[in-house]
């Protein structure tokens, strides 16, 4: 844009030199009344090049300044919009970069009382953890290990099997793992195992004295098979008699029709 403006100015000076005679470089003259100014006009005068640039059909310097101002305003607005967009994304990105994985929940819950022996401990984190660096240790009230096998990691959920608990008291669950961003997570939780009273099982001696077990009648295999065989013969005889009666009736009808 500055090079074009200088070119327009140079063309204007050349045109003014042809119209007014010899015009030294850089010299400014007052516009003549024929160009549009009246005698005694108190408005500030302008160089001839500004008036003759419009006569040549060239862009006037005022318009050039307006266009440059618009371009500068647009550039400023774009820069301001970019800064605002970057500032809006900073609060969204910064917490995720600084946040580390942490334990969200554990089952059995911390400081809870369990009346039945749990078969596993489940730890849930807010981010996935590394399965290669995850260790869970469960110790009983006497310091003995109560965990069984290795921990099973499913992204953000870790499961640790337990042996059947027999001793009542406080059990401590110590965990140590590494999140996906390399942050080490460790801590300890505990629960209390307090088994409830065991209901007594009914025995034979506790049965009522007046109740005498009644013997059940059992059928011998021979008797059951003989009764089934007799019923089969009776059914077979009835079917045979019905067939003979039907044959006799049809024979009689045939003879009557023949007569």
TrEMBL record:
Q: Coiled-coil regions in this chain?
A: none
Q: Which UniProt keywords apply?
A: Copper, Membrane, Metal-binding, Signal, Transmembrane, Transmembrane helix
InterPro entries the record matches: CopC/D, CopC_dom, Cu-Rt/internalin_Ig-like, Ig_E-set
Primary localization class, coarse? other
Localization terms from the record: Cell envelope
In its UniProt record, a GO molecular function of this protein is: copper ion binding
- Where are its TM segments located? 229-251
Annotated Low complexity bias: 201-216
Annotated region Disordered: the residues are 195-225
- Tell me a GO cellular component: plasma membrane
User: Matching Gene3D superfamilies, A to Z?
Assistant: 2.60.40.1220
Domain CopC as annotated: residue spans = 100-192
Q: Which SUPFAM superfamilies match?
A: E set domains (SSF81296)
This protein's superkingdom?
A: Bacteria
Q: Name one GO biological process term.
A: copper ion transport
How is this protein named in the record? Copper resistance protein CopC
What is the phylogenetic placement of the source species in the record?
Answer: Bacteria, Bacillati, Actinomycetota, Actinomycetes, Streptosporangiales
């Amino acid at each position: 844009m500055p090079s074009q403006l200088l070119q327009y100015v140079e063309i204007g000076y050349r045109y003014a030199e042809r119209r007014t005679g010899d015009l030294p470089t850089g010299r400014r003259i007052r516009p003549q009344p024929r160009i549009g100014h009246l005698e005694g006009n108190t408005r500030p005068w302008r160089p001839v090049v500004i008036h003759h640039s419009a006569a040549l059909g060239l862009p006037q310097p005022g318009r050039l300044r307006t266009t440059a101002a618009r371009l500068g305003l647009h550039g400023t607005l774009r820069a301001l919009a970019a800064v605002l967009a970057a500032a809006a994304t900073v609060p969204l990105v910064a917490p995720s970069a600084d946040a580390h994985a942490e334990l969200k929940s554990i089952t059995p819950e911390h400081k809870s009382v369990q009346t039945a022996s749990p078969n596993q401990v489940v730890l849930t984190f807010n981010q996935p953890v590394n399965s290669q660096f995850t260790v869970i240790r469960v110790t009983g009230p006497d310091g003995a290990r109560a965990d069984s096998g290795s921990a099973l990691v499913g992204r953000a959920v870790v499961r640790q099997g337990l042996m059947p608990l027999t001793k009542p008291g406080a059990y401590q669950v110590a965990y140590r793992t590494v999140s996906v961003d390399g942050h080490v997570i460790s801590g300890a939780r505990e629960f209390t195992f307090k088994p409830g009273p065991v209901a007594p099982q009914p025995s034979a001696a506790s049965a009522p004295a007046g109740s005498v077990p009644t013997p059940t009648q059992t059928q011998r295999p021979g008797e059951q098979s003989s009764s089934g065989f007799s019923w089969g013969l009776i059914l077979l005889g009835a079917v045979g008699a019905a067939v003979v009666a039907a044959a006799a009736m049809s024979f009689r009808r045939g003879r009557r029709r023949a007569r």
